[in-house]
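Review form for a predicted model. The reviewer records the input and the model, then writes brief findings.
Reviewer: anonymous (R2)
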Amino acid sequence: MIYSVPDRHRIVYNSTSPVVYVYIRNLFVCAAMLLLVASCRDNPTIRTQGLNGKWEIYSALRNGNETPYLRGGYFVFDAKGNLTVNITGEDETGPFSIEGDIISVKDKAKYRVQSLRNDSMDIHFVASPESEFLFFLKKATNENH
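Model under review:
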C-alpha cells in the first residue's frame, strides 16, 4: 500500500522560498560572527619551554632593508630564565620575562615575537626611533653556544 502526502503538507525548497532565505541569512550571520571573534583574539602567549636553546639570525632587515651585518648574531634562552643576545658583536646577558608576545630583558630591550614555530622565529626590535629591526631566526641544531 502506498500512501501519498497531500500537497498542502509538502514543503518545497527552492531559491525563492522564505525558509531557504532565512537559513542562508542565518548561516551568513553565524560565519561573520565567527570571523569577528577569531580576529579579536589576543596574540597567543609565548611559552618559555618553546624558546629554550640557541636561535641563530639567518637574515635581518633594518628599517625595511636587508642588512648582512646581523647574520651570525644569535639569541640564547637558557633554562634558568636568562637571555643572551648577540646583535652588536658582544654578548649581552640578563634575565628575561614574557608578557603576551613581548620578551623583555632587564626592562631595557623589548623584543616582539611576530611568529614562533618549532624551528624558526621572527622578532621585531626597535633599537631607537631611527633604527627598527626584523630578525629571522632558525633554531640551532647544535646546542653548543
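Findings: Residues 54 and 142 are 8 Å apart (CA to CA).
Further findings: The helical segments are 18-39, 48-51.
Recommendation: see findings above.
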